[in-house]
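Practice problem: predict the structure.
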Amino acid sequence: MKFEDAANTLATWAARGKDVFTLGDLRVLFPGDREAAFSEGLRRLVRSGLLERAANGVYVYPFGTGDRGGRLERVASAVRRGALNYISLESALSMFGIISQVPIDHLTVMTTGRKGRVQTRWGTIEFTHSARPIVELVDGTVPTEGPLRLARPETALRDLRRVGRNTHLIQEDEVEEIISEFRSRNP
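Answer:
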């Protein structure tokens, strides 16, 4: 891959809102290269700063004009592509105000993929495996503007208890009101 062509291709995709790529995505964007040339071209792009390695097999174009705040979610989606992933546990409960602790640079994600923790420059992604049926998972979440669905408050609470996480931060006196308000906005 020629450096200038690669730079133009990545800039074009970033202008469309895509700044996170898996190795497979990059293979599709640069199909003419043999494996050795592709690997060397990818190393050059990373060395030059045109791409940053976010996780194993996941790369970020750092000059994208998209929502940088959602970048950690986009990386999470790419890391567990093919699995159902949704924001839950402490991240979701903090968004709803059910817990007072705000996880900074930490995203807690339930996934049908494997569990694990991924450290990135933008923060830590913690994946917790769920073996529940996909239909139940979808019903317990709502779509967002980002790539990940969001657990309903009652789902996030149930997830927290199911995986045995610390529940002492839950503001029990506000839970019912928050769930009721959320249901009225998201039937």
